[in-house]
Amino acid sequence: MTKLTLYVGNKNYSSWSLRPWLALEACGVPFEDVVIPFDFEAGNPKFRDISPTGRVPVLHHGDIRVWESLAIIEYVAELFPQAGLWPEDPAERAVARSYSMEMLSGFRALRGACPMNMRREKRAINLPNDVLGDVERIETIWREAVARSGGPFLFGRFTAADAMFAPVVNRFEVYDLTRNPGSLAYMDAVKTHPAFAKWQEAALQETWIVPEDEA
Question: Would you say the C-alpha torsion 32, 37, 208, 161 has a positive or negative sign?
Fold first, then answer.
């Protein structure tokens, strides 16, 4: 099979890049990753050479280009059905996709106030009510999913749905957004997954600084 190449941004900051990278890595899909950092104020002009949107992540598979996190995950799930990126049960798979789409399109207040930052020292900041509303909804998703599956992940084993929420796990940790035992247990399961640890290790070695993401 033609090699898969996933182009990503800074591993310290790029939540959109983390999602498909983590889904592929955790589920054993073979791919190469290439980091193109956000080293310009409006991104990096090199993005235009690799992506029709001028953004990352983008997956190259021969002549095929797939962009947007969830689209990349869906494409790879079709290529590697045996990898189990989604739950096997159709009903559970529908819920997993619904959660993932909600994560993709929602929680803008949280994302705006609390950028993903792997190397940020844990410290709380003052947050408006709309951010707290996002936190409450996310914790409801985690609580209901883990209660239904038995955990430790949203659908028992690690799936693409967990990858979609992984940047939020970082946000909850470094901005000290919860003390709920159930949420902390789920967060610990994600943080200690070997694939997440591998991304975080690479992120902590980066030296690039993006001031607007240093909330």
Answer: negative
